[in-house]
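Long-time lurker. I teach an intro course on protein structure, and each term I like to show students one example going from raw sequence to a predicted 3D structure in token notation. This year I'd like something fresh instead of my usual example. Would anyone be willing to generate the tokens for the chain below so I can use it in lecture? Attribution to the forum is fine with me.
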Amino acid sequence: MEIKELGHVVLWVRDLEQSVHFYRDILGFKEVGRMQHGQSVMFSTGRSHHELYLMNIGADAEPVRQTRRAGLYHIGLKVGTTDDELKDAITTCANHGVEIVGASDHGVTHSLYIKDPDGNEVELYIDVQPELWRDDPTVALVPTKQLVLS
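-- Reply from a regular --
Happy to contribute to a lecture. Here you go:
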């Protein structure tokens, strides 16, 4: 078997409308449609039928624990290939009251880290030199540095 690409991410959410607002209105995913009597929503960037699927499980669900644990650490969302596009993401986050909880220079990417309404970490990143990592994937193995945007 050979995996061709990561297809989609499914998240359980405590407040569907709050999460729809975050992923659609702030991050810019396109809403494809609602299913299960309006209790789940599919989103797409246009790359495939859906890349993100949110399933409402209600406010009484246990929140994401912010401690060291096995499981999902974060999802990465590419916002472009230039620092200007990453700066636009910073502005969008600030305009919507979304706190940036981290910023890293991974050599091949520049990344911002935010939290969704349920506490899931989301990486917003740009590819710095896509031609280098395509030819030599090991360039992605450099130590992480603090991100400084000029």
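Some talking points for your students: The beta strands are 9-13, 30-35, 40-44, 52-56, 74-80, 100-105, 109-115, 121-127, 145-146. The chain has two domains: 1-59, 74-150.
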